[in-house]
């Protein structure tokens, strides 16, 4: 498992992660989502909805991993979209992605 998925698991254990399309969109709208992960194998309609919402609310979006990988990292079944609600974790993810 790579560092991004490991950090996602750590953020989950710290209760700083929300998963599921509707819950993530709710977090984006409320301003609590600091970063959103979208699975690379997401359906087109889910991809468009999440991408549009993140861009209109200025929330960084990272396309990363498959739905199985994202789900496994947070200890759940398949997850297409995951939001990180902590600014510190979001900065850590941004550093990992940029390197």
UniProtKB/TrEMBL annotation:
<feature type="domain" description="Ribosomal protein eL8/eL30/eS12/Gadd45">
    <location>
        <begin position="2"/>
        <end position="91"/>
    </location>
</feature>
<dbReference type="Pfam" id="PF01248">
    <property type="entry name" value="Ribosomal_L7Ae"/>
</dbReference>
<dbReference type="InterPro" id="IPR004038">
    <property type="entry name" value="Ribosomal_eL8/eL30/eS12/Gad45"/>
</dbReference>
<dbReference type="InterPro" id="IPR029064">
    <property type="entry name" value="Ribosomal_eL30-like_sf"/>
</dbReference>
<protein>
    <submittedName>
        <fullName>YlxQ family RNA-binding protein</fullName>
    </submittedName>
</protein>
């Amino acid at each position: 498992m790579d560092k991004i998925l490991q950090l996602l698991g750590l953020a989950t254990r710290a209760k700083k992660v929300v998963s599921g399309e509707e819950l993530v969109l709710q977090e984006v709208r409320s301003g609590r989502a600091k970063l959103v992960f979208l699975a690379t194998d997401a359906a087109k309609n889910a991809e468009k909805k999440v991408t549009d919402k993140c861009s209109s609310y200025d929330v960084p979006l990272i396309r990363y991993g498959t739905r199985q990988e994202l789900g496994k990292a947070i200890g759940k079944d398949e997850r297409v979209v995951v939001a990180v609600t902590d600014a510190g974790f979001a900065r850590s993810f941004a550093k990992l992605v940029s390197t």
